[in-house]
Amino acid sequence: MSVQIGISETFPKTTQLVQRGKAINPLSNPKGQKFECELCGKPAYIQCKNCRLTYYCDKDHETIDFRGIHEKICQLIIPLRTPLGDFGSEEERAYREKQTRIRQMNLLEITKIEAHKKLFESQFDLAIPAALQALRFSMDVYGQDSIELVPSYLLLGEASIGLKQFSQAEDYLSLAKWAVLKADSACHPSIRAQLHRNLGLMFSSQGNYDAALLQLANDIFFSSIAKSPDHITTSGGYFQLGNVFQKLGRLEDATATFDKVISIWKLFLKEKTKFLNEAQQAEAVQILTTIHSFRSVHMNSSVTSAAEVMYVLAQLYNTCNKFDKAKACAERALETYESALGRDHSMTVEVKIFYKGIVVDDKDSSPSSRIQSANSKSRKHSINGMMRRTSSVNSASPSH
Ligand SMILES: [Zn+2]
Ligand SMILES: [Zn+2]
C-alpha cells in the first residue's frame, strides 16, 4: 500500500522507512552514495551538526524534525547508527546485540511518548517526526509484519487526522486494521481499543458522528477489558464520546459522559501510587480543561460543578510537580467553593487544606528554592506524585 506521510510536502512511503533507516548510516553506505532526508527521503544536503549522522533535504525539514523529536534523541541514536562490527568473541557480539536491542526499545518508548504528547498538545505537524521514528524503531525491534507496529500506525493516523489529511489517515488506519485482522486473537484488547478510538476520531472529524459513536463505544468496551471500566486509559474513550455527544447537541449525554471521566480521574488522583508519563499528563490536562470549559458554559446552574474540575486539575498539577499551576487552580476552586457554599462547608475546608499543602514559595520561585521546598516539609505531600518515566510503554495508553 502506498502511504505518504504529510505535513505539506511529500513524505516517505512507510515501506521505505526501514531501508532508509539502514541506508542513512554513512559507514554502511557505499562510497559516493547520496544521503536521504530523515523526514521525506529526498536527497539530503544538510547534516545535523551534533550527531553528524542525520541528514535533511532542507532547513524546514531539519527544524520540524528537531522540534518534533530529534532534539530528544540526537545523542541517543549515535550508537545505533554506528556499525557494531564483527570483532570480538561470540559472547561479546551477543552482548553488543543485546545492548542495541535495549537502546532500540528505549528509543521506541521515548518516541512514542513524545508523539502522544505532541498529539495531546495539538501539535500535529510535530507529532509526525516522532511517530515516524516510533514506527522505525518498532520495525527494528519487532519486524515489519508485527502487530506491535499498530500503535505507531495509529500515531501517524491520528496526526494525519489532526492535519485534516484524511486519505492519508485512512491509509494508516487500514494498515493498522489489516495488522489487527491478521493477528486475530493474538491482538491485545488495548490495541483494538486504540484502533477504534482512532477510527472514532476520524469519523468525528469528518462529521460522521453516528459512525464515531459506534467506534468509541467499541474503544470503551475493549479498553475496559484490557484495563478496567474505571481506568484512566478508558476515560480517554469516554472523553471522546462526550465530545461527539456535544457536537450532536446531546448535552445531557455529554454531561453524563464527562461526569464519568471526572469520577475516574478523581479516583485515580486519590491513589497512593500514581505515575503519569508526559503523554498521559498532556492528555489529562487536555481532558480536564475541556470539561472545565464545558461545565462553565453548560452547567452554570450548579456553580461548583466547574470548580470541582478546577480542583481535580489542581490535584493533577500537584501530582505532576507543577506546583505553581496547582496552586493557581486550587485558588480558583477555593474562591468558588467559599462564595457558593461558605467557609465551613466540608468541600471548602478540603480544598483549603489541599491549597495550603501545595509547595510553592510565592516570594521566591527560583528553581533552586522550589527544589529545596519540595525536599523539605512538604515532601510528604509531593512524594506520592513524583513523576517517573515508566520503563515500558503502557500499550493501552490512549493514542491521542
Ligand atoms: Zn526532507
Ligand atoms: Zn543529531
TrEMBL record:
Record domain MYND-type: where: 37-74
One matching Pfam family: zf-MYND
Source domain of life: Eukaryota
Xref: InterPro entries: TPR-like_helical_dom_sf, TPR_rpt, Zinc_finger_MYND_domain, Znf_MYND
Chain intervals for the UniProt region annotation (Disordered): 363-400
GO MF annotations, alphabetized: zinc ion binding
Keyword entries, A-Z: Metal-binding, Zinc, Zinc-finger
Composition-biased stretches (Polar residues): 366-376, 389-400
Coiled-coil positions: none
PANTHER family (alphabetical): ZINC FINGER MYND DOMAIN-CONTAINING PROTEIN 12
The name this protein goes by in its record: Zinc finger MYND domain-containing protein 12
Organism listed in the record: Clydaea vesicula
Gene (name only): ZMYND12
